Amino acid sequence: MRHTPKRWRTRWILALALAMPTVPALANEKLLDETLSAEQSQAELQARIDAADEKTRADIKALRQKQAELRQLTGYNRDMAPRLDQQAATLDDREAALNALGDTREALPGMLHDLVKRLRQWVEADLPFLKQERMARVDSLESLLANAEVSYGEALERVLAAWRTELDYGRELDAWRGLLDAAPSSGRSTMSSSKSMSAGESLSQEVDFLRVGRVGLYYLTPDGREGGVWKTTAMEWQPLDGNERAEVDKGLRIAHDQRAPALLTLPVSQPVGANASVSDENAPVSVGITTEGSRSGEEDAT
After folding, report:
1. Do 204 and 191 touch, CB atoms closer than 8 A?
2. Which residues pair with 63 in a beta bridge?
3. Mean pLDDT for the chain?
4. Which sign, positive or negative, has the C-alpha torsion 94, 96, 100, 104?
5. Which residue in 199, 184, 257, 195 sits closest to 226, CA to CA?
6. Backbone torsion region of residue 293, taken as left when φ is above 0, otherwise alpha when ψ lies between -120 and 50, otherwise beta
7. Which residues on neighbouring strands pair with residue 217, listed in sequence order?
8. Helix crossing, 101-125 with 152-169: angle to 10°?
9. Region for residue 226 given its phi and psi (left: phi exceeds 0; alpha: psi -120 to 50; beta: otherwise)
């Protein structure tokens, strides 16, 4: 019993020694919790900051896009302003035309008849090529205008188409073989041959014709010994010399795709240019021709 207090004291000291590490552990655990809580708060704050940054960037991007659209619309409005002014002026012109439509309808029949009349005069005074076809076209237009069932719109379209066809002849290179009818005029033959002919005689022979737009109309016999140029002022064929017949032969071969395009030095059938005189018909000119628009066929020329 003497050793009992000492033994209890030893046990008490041992228990205290065993219990002492628990106090720092509890403190460390509390500190860890506080650290984790602070980190979580900081993460949440950073997330809110990042979200705010993303929203700011999105707003800035949207603002820049709107600014770009504004600049584009401003430029578009600036470009459209003259067009709108022009359209407004066009509408005013059309309104004025509509107001004058009644007068135009009344004048249209007379205009159509005048166009057909002038077309007939044009064909009659022009170079004598495709004469029957062209005169038949004019006759059909006159019959068309006399038909009450044909509207003025259709008639106008047909008349303008005929005029366009005539204008296209001026850009064509045409070559064909046909009959040349020659008859004396005032005791003088229209043939290019040097043969004399008595009054009342006529002669037809097969020749090759060459037409260069409305600048010149020529013919050449198959043997190349005779050739002529049509003179509009004299209304007759006039002979060509040897060099000119060679140029016509060159033009015929170009028209038939037998040689490359080239310049032709030939007398013209009628004066060329606004200030040209009748004497200019006899002056040879260089005519550049190509095979574009060329055509071939047969026709009688008078």
Report:
1. no
2. none
3. 78
4. negative
5. 195
6. left
7. 211
8. 30
9. beta
In this prediction, residue 273 carries a pLDDT of 57
Q: DSSP letter for 138, please.
A: H
DSSP per-residue letters across 89-124: HHHHHHHHHHHTHHHHHHHHHHHHHHHHHHHHHHHH
Residue type, 173: L
Q: What is the mean pLDDT of residues 192-205?
A: 48
Tokens found for residue 221 = 């016999």
Instruction: Select from 171, 172, 175 the least CA-distant residue to 250.
Output: 175
Cα(207)–Cα(191) distance, integer angstroms: 12
pLDDT band at 209 (very low <50, low <70, confident <90, very high): very high
| CA gap 51, 47 in Å, rounded | 6
Among candidate residues 278, 280, 281, 248, the one with its CA nearest the CA of residue 262: 248
**Is a pLDDT exceeding 70 seen at residue 299?**
no
CA–CA gap between residue 67 and residue 55 (Å, rounded): 18
Find where tokens 């430029």 sit: 75
Please state the rounded mean pLDDT for residues 19-26.
58
Whether residue 221 has pLDDT greater than 90: yes
Determine contact, residues 112/138, Cβ cutoff 8 Å. Answer: no
**205 SS3 class:** strand
Instruction: Report pLDDT digits (tens) over 76-100.
Output: 888 888 988 888 888 888 877 767 7
DSSP strands (E only) in the chain: 173-182, 184-185, 188-189, 203-212, 216-220, 227-231, 236-239, 263-267, 284-288
Q: List, for residues 149-158, the tens digit of each pLDDT value.
A: 988 889 999 9
254 with 211: CB under 8 angstroms? no
Q: How many CB atoms are located within 10 Å of the residue 136 CB?
A: 11
Instruction: Specify the pLDDT at position 58.
Output: 86
- Residues pairing with 95 in the sheet: none
Whether 256 and 175 have beta carbons less than 8 Å apart is answered as yes
Please tell me which residue, 294 or 13, carries the higher pLDDT value: 13
